[in-house]
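Entry 14. Structure prediction run on the chain below.
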Amino acid sequence: MFSNYLIGLREGLEASLVVCILIAYLVKTGRRDALKPVWAGIAVAVLLALGFGSALEFGSQELTFEAQEALGGSLSVIAVGLVTWMVFWMRRTARHLKTELHDKLDAALAMGTGALVATAFLAVGREGLETALFVWASVHAAGDGTPRPLIGVLLGITTAVALGWLFYRGALRINLAKFFTWTGGMLVVVAAGVLAYGFHDLQEADWLPGLTDKAFDVSGTIPPDSWYGTLLKGVFNFQPDPTVLQVTVWLLYLVPTLALFLAPVGFASGKGKVKSPDDQGTQPDDRPSTAPRA
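Output returned:
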């Protein structure tokens, strides 16, 4: 449940910050007339994400077992790829997110209502689709038949919306650079479990060999139905009897990805100077503007 809460919190907070920045900018610049088109674009993006998630869930139920496993495994791999790209992208560009969104909004304001709707839709829609796909893959990997994964996601999204509102009202100040670094690192760990389980699905679909080649079996020590087995499963997608391929994929993904993500050096700047994340600071562009009270 915690891993799904983390997914909802991390992805939901990104979307909330985007909405906060867009709305605050329009209010501060006296363009309240543009709020309705922006909210319309946001609503369409949310509906699209919900529709996409529903299509994945109900569409997969009509498939054979092998087809379900093949679909679940393939989408898990795609979801991990998208989430990995997302956490690295946010680590690199979070400091300039506000400026980037302001520039896009200025261009959309000059083009008219349709452009405003499209800008809001694209800004939020990407986060929504990524969230729907990764949540579906994570819930599918949990596979315990309980509503706890979905409850965790909903609680995370609810928390993210509340934090976004507090940011907008100027009631909350946190170091977003550190927040996204640490939550991104935890999300990489969650993604490693989803990826390993995705490969297990592909093995069950007979797309990959080695289903009977177990790396180890600690079911006697860590029963899957025990409270600590359930906890490990919910947080890390831990499986007490993984295949050799699962363990290999988990290690090959987690170790280099986490090391690169948490490395003290960042991306090269214009003249080849390498900056660490701590050198980039958090002011003034990594926090959403505080809009005046309406």
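The radius of gyration is 21 Å.
Filed with the rest of this week's runs.
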